Amino acid sequence: MSIEGVIAANRFGLGARPGEVATVSGDPKGWLLAQLTPERELPRPLQSLPSTIDDMSAFFKWIRQIADEAKAHGMDPYKLKPQGAPGAAMSGVSGGMSGSDSGFSIEREYVKAFLPRYAVAVKARYDVAVTTDRPFFERLVHFWTNHFVVSGAKPGAITMPPSFERDVIRPNVTGRFADMLMASSKHPAMLFYLDNYHSIGPNSKVGKDPSLRAPKVQQAFAVPQMAGLNENLAREIMELQTLGVRSGYTQADVTSFARVITGWTIAGPPRVPVYKLVLDGRLNGKGLFEFDDEEHEPGPQTIMGKVYAQAGVDQGEAVLNDLARHPATAHFIATKLARHFIADDPPPAVVERLAKVYLASDGDLKAVCTALVNSPETFDPSPRKFKPPEDYVISAARALPTLQSDPGSLLRAYGSMGQTPYNPPGPNGWSDVEAEWLGADSVWKRFEWANQTADSVATATMNPSELAKDVLGPSLSPATAQAIARAQSPAQGLTLLLASAEFQRR
Protein backbone atom coordinates (compact mmCIF):
# COMPACT_ATOMS: atom_id res chain seq x y z
CA MET A 1 0.00 0.00 0.00
CA SER A 2 1.57 3.29 -1.13
CA ILE A 3 0.89 6.98 -0.68
CA GLU A 4 0.58 7.21 -4.46
CA GLY A 5 -2.27 4.69 -4.30
CA VAL A 6 -4.00 6.81 -1.65
CA ILE A 7 -3.60 9.92 -3.80
CA ALA A 8 -4.93 8.20 -6.91
CA ALA A 9 -8.03 6.92 -5.10
CA ASN A 10 -8.76 10.02 -3.05
CA ARG A 11 -7.37 13.03 -4.93
CA PHE A 12 -8.23 11.92 -8.44
CA GLY A 13 -11.01 9.53 -7.58
CA LEU A 14 -14.03 9.94 -5.34
CA GLY A 15 -12.70 8.30 -2.21
CA ALA A 16 -11.29 4.83 -1.63
CA ARG A 17 -13.49 1.78 -1.22
CA PRO A 18 -12.29 -1.00 1.11
CA GLY A 19 -9.40 -2.76 -0.59
CA GLU A 20 -9.08 -0.17 -3.35
CA VAL A 21 -5.92 1.56 -2.15
CA ALA A 22 -4.08 -1.76 -1.95
CA THR A 23 -5.20 -2.64 -5.48
CA VAL A 24 -4.41 0.75 -6.97
CA SER A 25 -0.97 0.95 -5.31
CA GLY A 26 0.46 -1.51 -7.82
CA ASP A 27 0.15 1.03 -10.68
CA PRO A 28 -1.59 4.26 -9.57
CA LYS A 29 -0.97 6.20 -12.78
CA GLY A 30 -1.93 3.26 -14.97
CA TRP A 31 -5.18 2.88 -13.02
CA LEU A 32 -6.04 6.53 -13.62
CA LEU A 33 -5.03 6.67 -17.27
CA ALA A 34 -7.07 3.55 -18.06
CA GLN A 35 -10.19 5.49 -17.07
CA LEU A 36 -9.66 8.15 -19.76
CA THR A 37 -11.76 6.34 -22.32
CA PRO A 38 -15.30 7.07 -23.54
CA GLU A 39 -18.19 5.28 -21.91
CA ARG A 40 -19.43 2.24 -23.82
CA GLU A 41 -22.88 2.71 -22.34
CA LEU A 42 -24.57 4.88 -19.75
CA PRO A 43 -24.23 3.69 -16.15
CA ARG A 44 -27.34 1.74 -15.18
CA PRO A 45 -28.72 4.34 -12.69
CA LEU A 46 -28.84 6.91 -15.49
CA GLN A 47 -30.43 4.78 -18.17
CA SER A 48 -33.99 5.29 -16.99
CA LEU A 49 -33.77 9.05 -16.46
CA PRO A 50 -35.91 11.25 -18.74
CA SER A 51 -34.69 12.55 -22.08
CA THR A 52 -33.93 16.20 -22.80
CA ILE A 53 -37.31 16.68 -24.45
CA ASP A 54 -39.05 14.98 -21.54
CA ASP A 55 -37.20 17.21 -19.08
CA MET A 56 -38.24 20.37 -20.89
CA SER A 57 -41.79 19.26 -21.54
CA ALA A 58 -42.31 18.35 -17.88
CA PHE A 59 -41.94 21.94 -16.73
CA PHE A 60 -43.82 23.42 -19.67
CA LYS A 61 -46.76 21.05 -19.14
CA TRP A 62 -46.76 21.89 -15.46
CA ILE A 63 -47.13 25.57 -16.34
CA ARG A 64 -50.20 24.71 -18.37
CA GLN A 65 -51.70 22.88 -15.42
CA ILE A 66 -50.85 25.72 -13.05
CA ALA A 67 -52.34 28.24 -15.47
CA ASP A 68 -55.61 26.31 -15.39
CA GLU A 69 -55.46 26.15 -11.59
CA ALA A 70 -54.73 29.87 -11.37
CA LYS A 71 -57.67 30.70 -13.59
CA ALA A 72 -59.89 28.49 -11.45
CA HIS A 73 -58.86 30.58 -8.43
CA GLY A 74 -59.55 33.85 -10.22
CA MET A 75 -55.92 34.72 -10.97
CA ASP A 76 -54.31 35.84 -14.22
CA PRO A 77 -51.60 33.23 -15.01
CA TYR A 78 -49.55 35.82 -16.90
CA LYS A 79 -49.19 37.92 -13.74
CA LEU A 80 -47.89 35.23 -11.40
CA LYS A 81 -44.37 36.17 -10.40
CA PRO A 82 -41.60 34.29 -8.58
CA GLN A 83 -40.50 35.16 -5.07
CA GLY A 84 -36.96 33.77 -4.91
CA ALA A 85 -35.87 30.68 -6.81
CA PRO A 86 -38.18 27.66 -6.94
CA GLY A 87 -35.05 25.56 -7.26
CA ALA A 88 -34.09 26.66 -3.76
CA ALA A 89 -37.38 25.40 -2.41
CA MET A 90 -36.41 21.93 -3.60
CA SER A 91 -33.64 21.84 -1.00
CA GLY A 92 -35.63 23.34 1.82
CA VAL A 93 -34.61 26.97 1.33
CA SER A 94 -37.28 29.62 1.55
CA GLY A 95 -38.65 30.88 -1.72
CA GLY A 96 -41.58 30.30 -4.00
CA MET A 97 -44.15 32.04 -6.14
CA SER A 98 -46.95 34.32 -5.17
CA GLY A 99 -50.57 34.27 -6.10
CA SER A 100 -53.75 35.31 -4.38
CA ASP A 101 -54.28 34.25 -0.78
CA SER A 102 -56.95 31.73 -1.67
CA GLY A 103 -55.44 28.45 -0.57
CA PHE A 104 -53.61 28.07 -3.87
CA SER A 105 -49.82 27.91 -3.44
CA ILE A 106 -47.64 27.78 -6.53
CA GLU A 107 -44.59 27.00 -4.40
CA ARG A 108 -46.37 23.99 -2.89
CA GLU A 109 -47.49 22.81 -6.31
CA TYR A 110 -43.98 23.28 -7.70
CA VAL A 111 -42.34 21.19 -4.99
CA LYS A 112 -45.04 18.52 -5.24
CA ALA A 113 -44.55 18.27 -9.00
CA PHE A 114 -40.75 18.33 -9.21
CA LEU A 115 -39.22 17.23 -5.92
CA PRO A 116 -39.64 13.49 -6.75
CA ARG A 117 -38.18 13.98 -10.23
CA TYR A 118 -35.26 16.03 -8.92
CA ALA A 119 -34.59 13.60 -6.07
CA VAL A 120 -34.45 10.63 -8.45
CA ALA A 121 -31.86 12.41 -10.61
CA VAL A 122 -29.72 13.36 -7.58
CA LYS A 123 -29.88 9.79 -6.28
CA ALA A 124 -28.89 8.41 -9.69
CA ARG A 125 -25.86 10.72 -9.83
CA TYR A 126 -24.92 9.63 -6.29
CA ASP A 127 -25.36 5.93 -7.08
CA VAL A 128 -23.08 6.17 -10.11
CA ALA A 129 -20.40 7.97 -8.12
CA VAL A 130 -20.54 5.52 -5.20
CA THR A 131 -20.48 2.32 -7.27
CA THR A 132 -18.31 3.27 -10.25
CA ASP A 133 -15.05 1.47 -10.99
CA ARG A 134 -14.00 4.60 -12.91
CA PRO A 135 -14.06 7.31 -10.24
CA PHE A 136 -11.53 9.54 -12.06
CA PHE A 137 -13.81 9.65 -15.09
CA GLU A 138 -16.78 10.38 -12.85
CA ARG A 139 -14.95 13.17 -11.06
CA LEU A 140 -14.26 14.72 -14.47
CA VAL A 141 -17.98 14.51 -15.27
CA HIS A 142 -18.70 16.48 -12.10
CA PHE A 143 -15.91 18.94 -12.87
CA TRP A 144 -17.19 19.75 -16.36
CA THR A 145 -20.82 19.93 -15.22
CA ASN A 146 -19.63 22.60 -12.78
CA HIS A 147 -17.83 24.37 -15.64
CA PHE A 148 -20.70 24.43 -18.13
CA VAL A 149 -23.36 25.34 -15.61
CA VAL A 150 -27.08 24.88 -16.08
CA SER A 151 -28.60 25.46 -12.66
CA GLY A 152 -31.97 24.55 -11.22
CA ALA A 153 -31.73 27.73 -9.17
CA LYS A 154 -33.42 29.45 -12.11
CA PRO A 155 -37.19 29.01 -12.30
CA GLY A 156 -37.98 26.49 -14.98
CA ALA A 157 -34.50 24.99 -15.21
CA ILE A 158 -34.88 22.49 -12.37
CA THR A 159 -35.64 19.62 -14.75
CA MET A 160 -32.82 20.34 -17.21
CA PRO A 161 -29.36 19.82 -15.58
CA PRO A 162 -29.46 15.99 -15.37
CA SER A 163 -30.11 15.48 -19.08
CA PHE A 164 -27.63 18.26 -19.92
CA GLU A 165 -24.96 16.43 -17.93
CA ARG A 166 -25.81 13.14 -19.62
CA ASP A 167 -26.10 14.47 -23.19
CA VAL A 168 -23.39 17.17 -23.25
CA ILE A 169 -20.80 16.36 -20.59
CA ARG A 170 -20.51 12.58 -20.40
CA PRO A 171 -19.93 11.96 -24.14
CA ASN A 172 -17.19 14.63 -24.31
CA VAL A 173 -15.16 14.12 -21.12
CA THR A 174 -12.26 12.51 -23.01
CA GLY A 175 -12.83 14.28 -26.34
CA ARG A 176 -12.10 17.77 -27.66
CA PHE A 177 -13.01 20.80 -25.60
CA ALA A 178 -14.38 22.48 -28.72
CA ASP A 179 -16.91 19.68 -29.16
CA MET A 180 -18.10 20.00 -25.56
CA LEU A 181 -18.35 23.77 -25.94
CA MET A 182 -20.36 23.43 -29.16
CA ALA A 183 -22.69 20.83 -27.65
CA SER A 184 -23.22 22.99 -24.57
CA SER A 185 -23.91 26.17 -26.55
CA LYS A 186 -26.55 24.43 -28.68
CA HIS A 187 -28.26 22.42 -25.96
CA PRO A 188 -31.79 23.61 -25.09
CA ALA A 189 -30.92 23.71 -21.39
CA MET A 190 -28.10 26.23 -21.91
CA LEU A 191 -30.11 28.25 -24.43
CA PHE A 192 -32.92 28.47 -21.90
CA TYR A 193 -30.81 28.97 -18.76
CA LEU A 194 -28.91 31.93 -20.24
CA ASP A 195 -31.88 33.31 -22.19
CA ASN A 196 -30.44 33.01 -25.69
CA TYR A 197 -33.54 31.23 -26.98
CA HIS A 198 -35.30 34.58 -27.39
CA SER A 199 -32.31 36.80 -28.31
CA ILE A 200 -33.12 38.75 -31.48
CA GLY A 201 -30.74 40.66 -33.73
CA PRO A 202 -31.69 44.37 -33.90
CA ASN A 203 -31.29 44.39 -37.69
CA SER A 204 -32.79 40.96 -38.31
CA LYS A 205 -36.11 40.59 -40.10
CA VAL A 206 -37.89 40.15 -36.80
CA GLY A 207 -35.92 42.93 -35.12
CA LYS A 208 -36.77 45.46 -37.85
CA ASP A 209 -40.41 44.49 -38.15
CA PRO A 210 -42.01 44.19 -34.69
CA SER A 211 -45.23 42.94 -36.28
CA LEU A 212 -43.45 39.66 -36.99
CA ARG A 213 -42.93 39.10 -33.31
CA ALA A 214 -45.19 36.82 -31.36
CA PRO A 215 -47.24 38.40 -28.57
CA LYS A 216 -45.04 39.26 -25.65
CA VAL A 217 -45.11 37.24 -22.47
CA GLN A 218 -46.10 39.48 -19.57
CA GLN A 219 -43.31 38.31 -17.30
CA ALA A 220 -45.13 35.06 -16.55
CA PHE A 221 -42.95 33.02 -14.21
CA ALA A 222 -40.09 35.51 -14.71
CA VAL A 223 -39.72 34.69 -18.40
CA PRO A 224 -38.06 37.70 -20.05
CA GLN A 225 -40.01 39.43 -22.77
CA MET A 226 -38.80 39.19 -26.34
CA ALA A 227 -37.13 42.59 -26.12
CA GLY A 228 -34.19 42.13 -28.51
CA LEU A 229 -30.53 41.30 -28.04
CA ASN A 230 -29.59 39.28 -24.96
CA GLU A 231 -25.89 39.06 -24.01
CA ASN A 232 -26.06 36.49 -21.21
CA LEU A 233 -24.86 33.44 -23.13
CA ALA A 234 -22.18 35.33 -25.05
CA ARG A 235 -20.79 36.85 -21.86
CA GLU A 236 -20.72 33.60 -19.89
CA ILE A 237 -19.14 31.66 -22.75
CA MET A 238 -16.29 34.18 -22.89
CA GLU A 239 -15.94 34.88 -19.16
CA LEU A 240 -16.70 31.52 -17.53
CA GLN A 241 -16.38 28.84 -20.18
CA THR A 242 -13.47 29.81 -22.45
CA LEU A 243 -11.21 32.88 -22.14
CA GLY A 244 -11.76 33.82 -18.51
CA VAL A 245 -11.89 37.33 -17.03
CA ARG A 246 -9.25 39.91 -17.90
CA SER A 247 -8.11 37.93 -20.92
CA GLY A 248 -8.18 40.65 -23.55
CA TYR A 249 -11.79 40.81 -24.71
CA THR A 250 -13.96 43.90 -24.31
CA GLN A 251 -17.62 44.67 -23.79
CA ALA A 252 -17.80 45.41 -27.50
CA ASP A 253 -16.58 41.87 -28.19
CA VAL A 254 -19.31 40.46 -25.94
CA THR A 255 -21.96 42.48 -27.77
CA SER A 256 -20.65 41.39 -31.17
CA PHE A 257 -20.62 37.75 -30.09
CA ALA A 258 -24.18 38.12 -28.78
CA ARG A 259 -25.20 39.33 -32.23
CA VAL A 260 -23.45 36.35 -33.80
CA ILE A 261 -25.51 33.84 -31.82
CA THR A 262 -28.88 35.52 -32.27
CA GLY A 263 -31.24 33.00 -33.81
CA TRP A 264 -29.65 30.16 -31.79
CA THR A 265 -32.83 28.97 -30.18
CA ILE A 266 -34.98 26.02 -29.12
CA ALA A 267 -36.87 24.25 -31.88
CA GLY A 268 -40.52 25.16 -32.12
CA PRO A 269 -42.89 27.35 -34.11
CA PRO A 270 -40.91 30.41 -35.24
CA ARG A 271 -40.58 33.24 -32.71
CA VAL A 272 -43.26 31.95 -30.37
CA PRO A 273 -41.96 31.67 -26.78
CA VAL A 274 -42.32 28.12 -25.52
CA TYR A 275 -43.99 29.37 -22.35
CA LYS A 276 -46.57 31.15 -24.46
CA LEU A 277 -47.20 27.95 -26.39
CA VAL A 278 -47.88 26.08 -23.18
CA LEU A 279 -50.17 28.68 -21.71
CA ASP A 280 -52.12 28.74 -24.96
CA GLY A 281 -52.16 24.95 -25.25
CA ARG A 282 -49.99 24.72 -28.37
CA LEU A 283 -46.89 22.87 -27.16
CA ASN A 284 -45.66 20.87 -30.13
CA GLY A 285 -43.43 18.36 -28.33
CA LYS A 286 -40.16 19.61 -29.82
CA GLY A 287 -37.28 20.82 -27.75
CA LEU A 288 -33.91 20.72 -29.54
CA PHE A 289 -31.57 23.23 -31.20
CA GLU A 290 -32.83 25.35 -34.06
CA PHE A 291 -31.25 28.19 -35.99
CA ASP A 292 -33.76 30.89 -36.92
CA ASP A 293 -32.35 33.04 -39.71
CA GLU A 294 -35.17 35.58 -39.35
CA GLU A 295 -33.97 36.41 -35.81
CA HIS A 296 -30.25 36.31 -36.65
CA GLU A 297 -28.33 39.58 -36.90
CA PRO A 298 -27.06 39.80 -40.50
CA GLY A 299 -23.64 40.88 -41.65
CA PRO A 300 -20.05 40.49 -40.45
CA GLN A 301 -19.06 40.91 -36.80
CA THR A 302 -15.66 41.73 -35.33
CA ILE A 303 -14.56 39.86 -32.19
CA MET A 304 -11.13 40.35 -30.62
CA GLY A 305 -9.81 41.88 -33.83
CA LYS A 306 -11.05 39.18 -36.19
CA VAL A 307 -13.87 39.69 -38.68
CA TYR A 308 -16.41 36.87 -38.97
CA ALA A 309 -18.26 37.20 -42.26
CA GLN A 310 -19.80 33.74 -42.36
CA ALA A 311 -23.52 33.49 -42.95
CA GLY A 312 -26.05 31.88 -40.65
CA VAL A 313 -25.15 29.36 -37.99
CA ASP A 314 -21.64 28.96 -39.42
CA GLN A 315 -20.73 32.36 -38.02
CA GLY A 316 -21.37 31.31 -34.42
CA GLU A 317 -19.66 27.96 -34.90
CA ALA A 318 -16.56 29.70 -36.26
CA VAL A 319 -16.39 31.96 -33.20
CA LEU A 320 -16.80 29.05 -30.80
CA ASN A 321 -14.03 27.08 -32.51
CA ASP A 322 -11.69 30.07 -32.32
CA LEU A 323 -12.52 30.66 -28.67
CA ALA A 324 -11.80 27.00 -27.94
CA ARG A 325 -8.36 27.29 -29.58
CA HIS A 326 -7.38 30.60 -27.97
CA PRO A 327 -4.28 30.59 -25.70
CA ALA A 328 -6.28 32.32 -22.97
CA THR A 329 -8.74 29.42 -23.02
CA ALA A 330 -5.89 26.93 -22.76
CA HIS A 331 -4.54 28.77 -19.71
CA PHE A 332 -8.00 29.13 -18.15
CA ILE A 333 -8.86 25.43 -18.51
CA ALA A 334 -5.39 24.37 -17.35
CA THR A 335 -5.72 26.55 -14.25
CA LYS A 336 -9.15 25.19 -13.36
CA LEU A 337 -8.04 21.56 -13.73
CA ALA A 338 -4.89 22.12 -11.69
CA ARG A 339 -6.85 23.95 -9.01
CA HIS A 340 -9.45 21.20 -8.84
CA PHE A 341 -7.03 18.30 -8.57
CA ILE A 342 -3.89 19.73 -6.94
CA ALA A 343 -4.27 22.90 -4.88
CA ASP A 344 -6.35 26.05 -4.46
CA ASP A 345 -3.25 27.92 -5.65
CA PRO A 346 -2.18 25.59 -8.47
CA PRO A 347 1.53 25.20 -9.24
CA PRO A 348 2.40 27.53 -12.16
CA ALA A 349 4.57 24.84 -13.77
CA VAL A 350 1.62 22.46 -13.98
CA VAL A 351 -0.65 25.15 -15.42
CA GLU A 352 1.92 26.00 -18.09
CA ARG A 353 2.46 22.31 -18.91
CA LEU A 354 -1.26 21.59 -19.28
CA ALA A 355 -1.85 24.72 -21.35
CA LYS A 356 0.92 23.70 -23.77
CA VAL A 357 -0.56 20.23 -24.17
CA TYR A 358 -4.01 21.74 -24.68
CA LEU A 359 -2.79 23.97 -27.51
CA ALA A 360 -0.60 21.33 -29.12
CA SER A 361 -3.42 18.76 -29.13
CA ASP A 362 -6.19 21.14 -30.28
CA GLY A 363 -7.92 20.92 -26.91
CA ASP A 364 -7.79 17.12 -26.56
CA LEU A 365 -9.01 16.65 -22.98
CA LYS A 366 -7.66 13.11 -22.73
CA ALA A 367 -4.19 14.41 -23.59
CA VAL A 368 -4.52 17.25 -21.06
CA CYS A 369 -5.66 14.90 -18.28
CA THR A 370 -2.87 12.48 -19.15
CA ALA A 371 -0.39 15.32 -18.69
CA LEU A 372 -2.07 16.14 -15.39
CA VAL A 373 -1.68 12.57 -14.09
CA ASN A 374 1.93 12.42 -15.27
CA SER A 375 2.89 15.70 -13.61
CA PRO A 376 5.02 14.98 -10.52
CA GLU A 377 3.36 17.84 -8.62
CA THR A 378 0.02 16.00 -8.66
CA PHE A 379 1.41 13.27 -6.41
CA ASP A 380 2.73 15.65 -3.76
CA PRO A 381 1.64 13.92 -0.54
CA SER A 382 0.54 17.18 1.10
CA PRO A 383 -3.31 17.10 1.29
CA ARG A 384 -3.99 20.56 -0.11
CA LYS A 385 -7.62 20.16 -1.24
CA PHE A 386 -10.67 20.20 1.04
CA LYS A 387 -13.60 18.08 -0.09
CA PRO A 388 -16.78 20.03 -0.88
CA PRO A 389 -19.97 18.53 0.60
CA GLU A 390 -20.97 16.35 -2.34
CA ASP A 391 -17.50 14.79 -2.58
CA TYR A 392 -17.47 14.28 1.17
CA VAL A 393 -20.78 12.42 1.22
CA ILE A 394 -19.79 10.28 -1.78
CA SER A 395 -16.40 9.39 -0.32
CA ALA A 396 -18.03 8.32 2.94
CA ALA A 397 -20.45 6.09 1.06
CA ARG A 398 -17.60 4.51 -0.91
CA ALA A 399 -15.76 3.76 2.33
CA LEU A 400 -18.92 2.34 3.98
CA PRO A 401 -20.56 -0.12 1.54
CA THR A 402 -23.39 -0.87 3.98
CA LEU A 403 -24.50 2.76 4.13
CA GLN A 404 -28.07 3.13 2.82
CA SER A 405 -29.12 6.53 1.49
CA ASP A 406 -32.58 7.24 0.15
CA PRO A 407 -33.26 10.34 -1.97
CA GLY A 408 -34.77 12.27 0.93
CA SER A 409 -31.82 11.73 3.26
CA LEU A 410 -29.41 12.67 0.49
CA LEU A 411 -31.17 15.96 -0.21
CA ARG A 412 -31.24 16.78 3.51
CA ALA A 413 -27.52 16.02 3.84
CA TYR A 414 -26.52 18.05 0.81
CA GLY A 415 -28.84 20.90 1.75
CA SER A 416 -27.60 21.13 5.34
CA MET A 417 -23.98 21.36 4.17
CA GLY A 418 -24.81 23.91 1.47
CA GLN A 419 -24.27 22.08 -1.82
CA THR A 420 -27.28 20.59 -3.55
CA PRO A 421 -26.35 18.92 -6.85
CA TYR A 422 -27.58 20.59 -10.04
CA ASN A 423 -28.42 23.75 -8.09
CA PRO A 424 -25.40 26.10 -7.87
CA PRO A 425 -26.39 29.70 -7.13
CA GLY A 426 -25.12 31.10 -10.44
CA PRO A 427 -23.48 30.35 -13.80
CA ASN A 428 -20.02 30.39 -12.21
CA GLY A 429 -20.88 27.12 -10.42
CA TRP A 430 -19.77 25.90 -7.02
CA SER A 431 -16.53 27.26 -5.59
CA ASP A 432 -13.48 25.02 -5.88
CA VAL A 433 -11.51 26.52 -2.99
CA GLU A 434 -11.68 25.51 0.64
CA ALA A 435 -12.56 28.94 2.04
CA GLU A 436 -16.09 28.45 0.67
CA TRP A 437 -16.58 25.24 2.65
CA LEU A 438 -14.67 25.81 5.89
CA GLY A 439 -17.22 27.99 7.67
CA ALA A 440 -18.02 27.05 11.25
CA ASP A 441 -21.63 26.09 10.50
CA SER A 442 -20.69 24.00 7.48
CA VAL A 443 -18.02 22.10 9.42
CA TRP A 444 -20.44 21.50 12.28
CA LYS A 445 -23.05 20.14 9.85
CA ARG A 446 -20.44 17.72 8.56
CA PHE A 447 -19.73 16.48 12.06
CA GLU A 448 -23.43 16.01 12.74
CA TRP A 449 -23.83 14.06 9.50
CA ALA A 450 -20.73 11.97 10.26
CA ASN A 451 -22.14 11.10 13.68
CA GLN A 452 -25.55 10.15 12.28
CA THR A 453 -23.96 8.12 9.49
CA ALA A 454 -21.70 6.25 11.90
CA ASP A 455 -24.63 5.40 14.14
CA SER A 456 -26.56 4.02 11.16
CA VAL A 457 -23.88 1.61 9.95
CA ALA A 458 -21.82 0.67 13.01
CA THR A 459 -22.01 -2.91 14.30
CA ALA A 460 -20.48 -4.55 17.33
CA THR A 461 -17.98 -6.46 15.19
CA MET A 462 -16.90 -3.50 13.07
CA ASN A 463 -13.29 -2.36 13.42
CA PRO A 464 -12.98 1.36 12.54
CA SER A 465 -9.20 1.25 13.01
CA GLU A 466 -8.78 -1.35 10.29
CA LEU A 467 -11.16 0.54 8.00
CA ALA A 468 -9.15 3.74 8.53
CA LYS A 469 -5.92 1.97 7.57
CA ASP A 470 -7.66 0.44 4.56
CA VAL A 471 -9.09 3.60 2.99
CA LEU A 472 -6.47 6.13 4.12
CA GLY A 473 -3.33 3.98 4.02
CA PRO A 474 -0.09 5.84 4.73
CA SER A 475 -1.93 9.18 4.86
CA LEU A 476 -3.47 8.18 8.23
CA SER A 477 -1.62 10.12 10.95
CA PRO A 478 -0.56 8.45 14.21
CA ALA A 479 -2.71 10.91 16.18
CA THR A 480 -5.87 10.10 14.22
CA ALA A 481 -5.14 6.37 14.33
CA GLN A 482 -4.71 6.56 18.08
CA ALA A 483 -7.93 8.55 18.58
CA ILE A 484 -9.92 6.03 16.56
CA ALA A 485 -8.34 3.09 18.43
CA ARG A 486 -9.31 4.64 21.77
CA ALA A 487 -12.93 5.25 20.79
CA GLN A 488 -15.46 3.90 23.25
CA SER A 489 -17.57 2.25 20.54
CA PRO A 490 -17.43 1.33 16.84
CA ALA A 491 -19.86 4.18 16.13
CA GLN A 492 -17.63 6.70 17.85
CA GLY A 493 -14.61 5.34 16.02
CA LEU A 494 -16.37 5.74 12.67
CA THR A 495 -17.37 9.29 13.56
CA LEU A 496 -13.75 10.14 14.31
CA LEU A 497 -12.70 8.61 10.99
CA LEU A 498 -15.26 10.52 8.93
CA ALA A 499 -14.57 13.77 10.81
CA SER A 500 -10.78 13.45 10.60
CA ALA A 501 -8.69 15.92 8.62
CA GLU A 502 -7.24 13.05 6.57
CA PHE A 503 -10.68 11.93 5.45
CA GLN A 504 -11.97 15.41 4.70
CA ARG A 505 -8.98 16.33 2.58
CA ARG A 506 -7.59 14.79 -0.59
List the helices and strands and how they pair.
Blueprint: H1 3-12, H2 20-24, H3 28-33, H4 44-47, H5 52-72, E1 81-83, H6 86-89, E2 96-98, H7 106-131, H8 135-145, H9 161-169, H10 177-186, H11 188-193, H12 205-208, H13 232-241, H14 251-260, E3 264-266, H15 274-279, E4 289-291, E5 301-303, E6 306-308, H16 313-325, H17 327-341, H18 348-360, H19 365-374, H20 389-399, H21 407-417, H22 440-457, H23 464-472, H24 478-485, H25 490-499, H26 501-504
Antiparallel strand pairs: 1-2, 3-4, 5-6
- Tell me the radius of gyration: 24 Å
Shape assignment: globular
- Extended strand count: 6
The computed structural class is mainly alpha
Q: For the record, give the distance between the C-alpha atoms at the N and C termini, rounded to a whole number.
A: 17 Å
Give start-end ranges of low-pLDDT stretches: 81-87, 92-102, 215-225
Please give the largest β-sheet: 2 strands, antiparallel
The helix content is 40-55%
Strand content: under 5%
Mean pLDDT: 87
User: What is the topology, as strand order, of the major beta sheet?
Assistant: 1-2
Number of helices: 26
Walk me through this protein's architecture:
Mean pLDDT is 87; it is low at 81-87, 92-102 and 215-225. The longest helix is centred in the first third of the chain and has 26 residues, at 106-131. Helix 13 (232-241) packs across helix 14, helix 17 (327-341) crosses helix 18 (348-360) and helix 24 (478-485) runs antiparallel to helix 25 (490-499). Among the domains are: 176-342 and 345-382, no CATH class; 389-504, no CATH class. The strands form three sheets. The protein has a two-stranded antiparallel ribbon. Strands 3-4 form a two-stranded antiparallel ribbon. The chain has helices spanning 3-12, 20-24, 28-33, 44-47, 52-72, 86-89, 106-131, 135-145, 161-169, 177-186, 188-193, 205-208, 232-241, 251-260, 274-279, 313-325, 327-341, 348-360, 365-374, 389-399, 407-417, 440-457, 464-472, 478-485, 490-499, 501-504; strands spanning 81-83, 96-98, 264-266, 289-291, 301-303, 306-308. A hairpin with a 2-residue loop joins strand 5 (301-303) and strand 6. With 506 residues, the chain is mainly alpha-helical.
